[in-house]
Amino acid sequence: MSERVYLRRKWLNRIMIGLCGIAAAAAIILLALILGYTLTRGIAAMNISFLTNAAKPVGEVGGGMRNEIFGTFILVILGSILAIPVGLMAGIFLSEFANPKVALAVQFAADILAGIPSIVVGVFAYAIVVQPMHTYSALSAGIALAIIMVPIVARTAEESLRLVPNSMREAALALGITRWRAVVGVIIPGALTGIVTGIMLAVARIAGETAPLIFTALGSQFGVQGLLKPIGALPLQIYHYALSPYRDQQQQAWAGAFLLILLVLGISILVRWLSNRKRF
Amino acid sequence: MSPMKAKSWKFNRSTHFADKIFSNSTLVFAMVIVGILLSLVIVLAVNAMPAINKFGFSFIGSSSWDAVRGVFGAWPAIFGTLLTAAIGLLIAVPISMGAAIFLTELSPLWLRGPASFVIEMLAAIPSVIIGLWGLFVLVPFVRNVLESWLGSKLGFLPLFQGAPFGVGFLSAGIILAIMVIPIITAMSRDAMRAVSDQQREAMLALGATRWEMIRKAVLPNCRSGLVGAVILGLGRALGETMAVTMVIGNSYTVSPSLFAPGSTIASKIALEFSEASSGVFVGSLIELALVLFGITLVVNVIARVLLWRMTAVKGTME
Predict the structure, then answer these.
(1) Is a pLDDT exceeding 70 seen at residue B288?
(2) pLDDT tens digits, residue range B46-103?
């Protein structure tokens, strides 16, 4: 009798452990499949003219995404310029100055903001920038990306500032310097790796964002013409070309995907390396 | 994370003038975050007014989307959003829970770091690339293999009837599962890791098998964290745009069949926003955005409260 109970428990144990192992393997294999397929298709489609040429009309071969690559670069810079000061200062406020109740409210707002679908952020940017200015623009896209970026930067900055030991704060103040000097000269340098990590994660996130760009950046056939004109972006062009019926454009979508994956995963691996070096 | 740190130096008396400026300017920037959130709600509501005034509450329940006559309704999009998210979670939750259990309880130590990293990488892949892969790999697979198989075995259910297009609710659901698995896995792993080892050791000392230990000592102690993780994944699935737009087929219909093409709120906005001309059309799309914002807001607030309660409980236990 008890023999049977033992046997049942033993087998249940094995089965459940096996299933958990299979689940983990499935998740990892899925990534390998997606990455492997995209990278092989991407490498096959990649060539020099993809990087150096502008988009060409359908039918002409040798078109590339030079302008879109440049556009993504500009949008990421613009988003970062707008978001990093806000995020960083908010992070400093949360970790160094806020009383617990205000901190809770700001943290909550940041977490909620981080959870808003990026397409809704795009609609918001459309309503506050594109509509009043009567034109799609790089600026509106940069603002949308900045809104996505701010909560990530703020929360990671706050977390890494909190990891700076209190003894550092006390030591700095004991030297007689003012609090803002202590923050800028001692505490921020102590948390710099974490802050940079958070910024890089946020950059990786916005570099691949597409949804908020559709009706803010719009895309442009004429390259980059300034911040108040429509602008192309790599993920946006991948989206357009993926749905294109033309084989050449589909090929370019894969090449673009390859480039975007290298960029985003490159940043992720760098972040991993940075944070490992610090903590463990 | 203790708020005591900040407090202990609030009582520092030697507040310099420059300090005042600095601390107040950090306050201003922090308030920018709150301001963005509030203005987002207000701006969306104001811009949706043409549609809200014209259709009222019937907007939610109506299924028409006719730009020529100027009559718009949200129901097919809401239906598609909820259905695809449900399919996504149905697939993602068991896999994520299994993977999280493996990562915290079963995996050899040397494998934990790399395996976690790989799963987190999956979260970093941009949505448009998942969509590209979905369009060229997943959709043909779903059309040629999965749907014909489901149709022949389970075709008596209305869920699995109809022509296998490939693009449709099923493909969108699978894509969403792929996208939320890393999120749910990572959050549940953190929740399970927060359970104290004493609980595990006590259970094993009583002679429990490893699975019994997980079932009775680990999972019950982090239940709110796990639910929070799933709801956070749900929030992500509801708002996911690009990958879904690329594989859902974009027809504006309500169908009981999972094989049918459809739309989600996000995909509808993504496809039509830059073409919308009339005030009511734009207003309707912005009202759709408002509805999506409302749904994800509720979902995210629930998730955050659950996750925060978990950390609070953990704090009092120690």
Answers:
(1) yes
(2) 999 989 999 988 898 888 898 888 889 999 999 999 999 999 999 999 999 999 999 9
Interchain contact, A9 vs B214, CB within 8 Å: no
* Alpha carbons A22 and B43: distance in angstroms, whole number: 47
Tokens of B4: 């005591």
Look at B44 and A169 and tell me if their CB atoms are within 8 Å.
no
ipTM of the complex: 0.91
**Which CATH number fits the domain that encloses residue A218?**
1.10.3720.10
Nearest-Cα residue of chain A relative to residue B27: A93
- What is the Cα–Cα distance from B63 to A195, expressed in whole angstroms? 47
Show the tokens assigned to B34: 């709150």
Domains of chain B: 65-317 (1.10.3720.10)
**Nearest Cα residue in chain B from A161:** B1
For the stretch B177-193, pLDDT in tens is 999 999 999 999 999 99
Q: How far apart are CA B73 and CA B79, in angstroms?
A: 12
Host domain of residue A239: 52-279
Instruction: Report the gap between the CA of A134 and the closest CA in chain B (Å).
Output: 13
Contact B118 A20 (CB under 8 A): no
- B120: which chain A residues are within 8 Å (Cβ-Cβ)? 268
Q: Which of B183, B174, B141 is nearest to B248 (CA)?
A: B174
DSSP 3-state helix, strand, coil percentages of chain A (rounded to 5)? 80, 0, 20
